[in-house]
Amino acid sequence: MTNNTTKEEWLKIGQEIMDDRAKRIKIAKTRKFDTIATHGIYDMNQALKYNNGSIMEPIYLTTAQAYANSAEMEAALAYQIPTWCYTRIANPSNYFLEETIALLEAYNTNIEASCVVTASGMSAIRTATDALLIKDDKLPPPNIVVSAKVYGGTFQQFHVRRQQEQGIEVRWVVNSNNIDEWASKVDDGTRFVYGEFPSNPSVAIFDIEKIAQLAHEHSIPLIVDTTCASPALTRPLQYGADIVIQSATKVIGTSGTSVCGTLTAKKNIVSKVGSDEMKADFAIWTKLWPYRDNGPALSPFNAIMTLNDLRSLRMRVAQMSDSALKVSRYLEKHPKIDRVHYPGLESFAAHATAKKYMVLADSNENKYGFMLAFEIKESKPEDSKNARKFYDALQMIWRATDLGRVKTVATLNAISTHQQQGEEGRKLANIKPNTCRLAIGIEHPDDVISDLEQALSKI
Hints:
Blueprint: H1 7-28, H2 33-39, H3 44-50, H4 70-77, H5 92-105, E1 113-118, H6 121-130, E2 143-147, H7 152-166, E3 169-173, H8 179-185, E4 190-196, H9 208-217, E5 222-225, E6 243-247, E7 261-266, H10 276-280, H11 282-288, H12 290-294, H13 300-310, H14 313-332, E8 337-341, H15 351-357, E9 371-376, H16 385-392, E10 398-399, E11 409-411, H17 422-428, E12 435-439, H18 445-456
Parallel strand pairs: 2-3, 2-4, 4-5, 5-6, 10-11
Antiparallel strand pairs: 1-7, 6-7, 8-9, 9-12, 11-12
């Protein structure tokens, strides 16, 4: 590799790099979930060849890549050889995270998937859906079919940014566990179907396999946000989904140092719009074209911080799920609690569906995630007096809008994460003034229950 290296020689070198990457991916796919989360496809040969032997993936805090000569630059910027060129498009540190997430989302399957990381979960949603809402005069005006039980920011992105500002009709599914309601909303103009599993904060779920089949019957993709399950519990690609969204800010990046989103897509997604190239490798096509132009790039520092948290994902989710189930059972029996929403409870309406899809990787054990919601008894349905008394009395549990942390966090969603969508939007999502979302951390569950008990005693 010198100033005299020709373009043909660069293409040969690029192919060797790609062949080596494919070999490392093949090896990684033979390993268990925890091993993939720990190593990805970064190995000793990579470390010695490129990173001075560093056993941990390095942070490339730089904006651009230099090239040996014009021939390499020409091949690289035509995307003919592996390159990162400019951090708005790609960065080596981001690759480490992307490759690992893609392997985990497709874990224990024969599915080929790729991933692009973004500056936030919201930018991952925007990046995924922009490409599916392009102008196509051969089709009816576009609409999208979305579960109404979604995170407040997601609701706003669809309701305000898409419907009110762009004129794209949003058809809300109120009961996400009702396949007939989904089916009644889809028609020739529908561009994609979208749902959260489980939803934030109402913990609603749906039958991923059936909704994927419905979407594919209409030649459209299913997009699933599994932020509140993570690939440690639920991997929608396995059940027919085309694209998976994660706010990796949450339980993947559990220490709370970095905001990060991921968009993972299987190869050859189903879509009635877009080029063959787009459908063949949606995530990579997105990275090379609209992502490059729109600029939702993730900071390399945040990529490595998220990757470091990712390594312990399965073990943490298992512990957090066990604690959440114990806390849910405690709350369900409490005289001051009206109702508890948690997929692991037998009283949960879609408990059987949860058992199908929420299984800890490399086990036969059902685990139901770290998040639950509950409603505190009030004198009137529209009140939140008791909920606020309880909330303000918490001592160890953090009052914040975050979730997925190693520290337990409580949120009154009607006055915070879902405040802007208004009363009508909150009714669609079944978020009441007395609803409290609880994201369980890794503390001992008895200490969490103790704090809940003393706070409830103040009512």
